[in-house]
Amino acid sequence: MQSWIIQIVNQFGYFGIALLIAVENIFPPIPSEVILTFSGFLTTVTGLKIWGVVLAATVGSVLGAVILYYVGRLISPERLERLLDGKLGKILHFKKEDIHRAGSWFAKRGRLTVFFCRFIPVVRSLISIPAGMAKMKIGMFLLLTALGTSLWNVVLVCLGAFFGSSWETVASYINTYSTVAAAGIVVLILLFVAWFYLKKTKRQ
Fold first, then answer.
1. Are the C-beta atoms of 37 and 170 separated by less than 8 Å?
2. 82: helix, strand or coil
3. Between vectors from CA 31 to CA 29 and to CA 33, what angle results, nearest 5°?
4. 93 by DSSP, 3-state: which?
5. Are 62 and 141 in contact (CB under 8 A)?
6. Is the pLDDT of residue 1 over 60?
7. Which of 34, 55, 76, 89 is the most buried (most CB within 10 A)?
8. What's the pLDDT tens digit per position in 188-204?
9. pTM of the prediction?
10. Are 56 and 18 in contact (CB under 8 A)?
11. Which residues of 158-170 are buried (b: 16+ CB within 10 A; e: fewer)?
């Protein structure tokens, strides 16, 4: 995959960067650290500029995020409630009230969540779906997404430019961070689920 990414960036420049980052937002397994650090390195040996790479990557990030946001808009709370009223709800032990609680939580803390999740691998893409489900105002969603992703892009592009031909080393370190962060998120989710079930059991 890495050689394929390098080929696209080499061949299409800013457009290739924007396209790859947009796809990376929709399909998280594509490594943004490779795209951004390699693009940063290219700013030292080609006509590409750091600001241009950051802008292209941010445009791509926002485009990908908007697609997932509207996917979330299609998944209405009413549809989820109907699902939870059936067999799925019984298997997972979720009720309609849980959807309302989650919606209330996102309404209170959704802005900070959307912004800070842009720095967490995998989650930085998927957070757009609950934002759409919660019907966050599109203007605010775009602003928070652009701010969060532009900071992420600046850091990785500048690291690639600073380390030059050693950009792959930087990408490997970022990949390690991504793996650790993803594992940490899985653990937190499992702990939350365990806490949720324990709390529900005590209530019953």
1. yes
2. helix
3. 150
4. coil
5. no
6. no
7. 34
8. 666 666 665 666 566 65
9. 0.73
10. yes
11. bbbbebeeebeeb
